[in-house]
């Protein structure tokens, strides 16, 4: 879907990489990957499978990535109700899936694009703090697809429904009015985008009850032909318009390949013919001011 936006390579981030399902799709062969994976064993496998990727085996919340650095972000983000400690985002009290989306979008540069697979709570809960955050930080939601229950059971180990969300990074404030409020179906709340665009729900919707306590809930039953899903995803991503970096900035980008540079933290050196300073895990270009000739 990102390729249809015009994306043909660049700096890509996978915030919860696992063994690299997205890295191995073949659609992003011109990408310079930064892949973050918390689990040590899985991270070792990821490094072995993708030796050219910049793999960080640590939590996303402690991985230093500059604001506005990435051209694209793709991720199947962790689901759950817990929060992560990050001084930059603690005040928002995001649940883990919202945090991964918010921090991922902040790492996109203007003109960049993102695709997240996440729980339905990101768009479905009454609390609209994530959507408002995205608006304020230039995260324009251009479309989404609701996937059925159990669709992610094999890859992510979850039987609940999930969403694919496509986001464009824009300059200034984004407009996510289509996703801000909830509508109703069968007397239950659902994000109004899916109420107004039922064709973007890749399932048959039924009223059911939750596994615990019998609370009324919506069930998304897999009844549609999987061959139709790629076309639906493409339709949801139609609004993505990738803008190459040379069209939005002239400054040389920094790089995250600090470990391969041989520089110690805080040191200055020459990497790929450029003078850079290592700040943590990041290499920043340094402007050299030569002394005037006497």
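-> sequence recovered:
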């Amino acid at each position: 879907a990102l390729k249809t936006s015009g994306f043909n390579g660049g700096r890509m981030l996978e915030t919860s990489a696992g063994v690299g399902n997205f890295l191995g799709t073949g659609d992003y062969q011109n990408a310079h990957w930064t892949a973050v994976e918390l689990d040590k064993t899985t991270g070792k496998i990821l490094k072995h499978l993708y030796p050219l990727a910049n793999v960080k085996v640590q939590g996303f919340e402690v991985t230093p990535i500059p604001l506005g650095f990435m051209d694209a972000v793709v991720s199947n983000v962790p689901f759950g109700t817990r929060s992560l400690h990050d001084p930059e985002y603690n005040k928002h009290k995001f649940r883990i899936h919202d945090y991964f989306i918010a921090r991922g979008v902040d790492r996109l540069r203007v003109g960049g694009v993102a695709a997240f697979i996440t729980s339905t709570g990101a768009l479905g809960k009454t609390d609209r703090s994530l959507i408002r955050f995205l608006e304020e930080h230039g995260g324009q939601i251009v479309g989404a697809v609701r996937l059925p229950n159990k669709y992610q059971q094999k890859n992510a180990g979850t039987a609940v429904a999930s969403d694919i969300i496509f986001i464009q990074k824009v300059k200034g404030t984004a407009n996510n009015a289509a996703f801000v409020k909830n509508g109703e179906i069968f007397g239950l709340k659902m994000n109004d985008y899916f109420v107004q665009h039922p064709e973007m729900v890749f399932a048959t919707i039924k009223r059911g009850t939750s596994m615990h306590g019998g609370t009324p809930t919506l069930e998304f039953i897999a009844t549609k032909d999987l061959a139709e899903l790629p076309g639906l995803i493409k339709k949801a991503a139609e609004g993505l318009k990738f803008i190459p970096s040379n069209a939005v900035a002239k400054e040389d980008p920094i790089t995250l390949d600090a470990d391969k540079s041989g520089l110690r933290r805080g040191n200055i050196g020459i990497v790929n013919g450029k003078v850079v300073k290592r700040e943590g895990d990041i290499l920043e270009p340094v402007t050299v001011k030569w002394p005037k000739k006497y």
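Helices lie at 40-49, 96-106, 121-124, 129-136, 153-156, 177-180, 192-196, 229-236.
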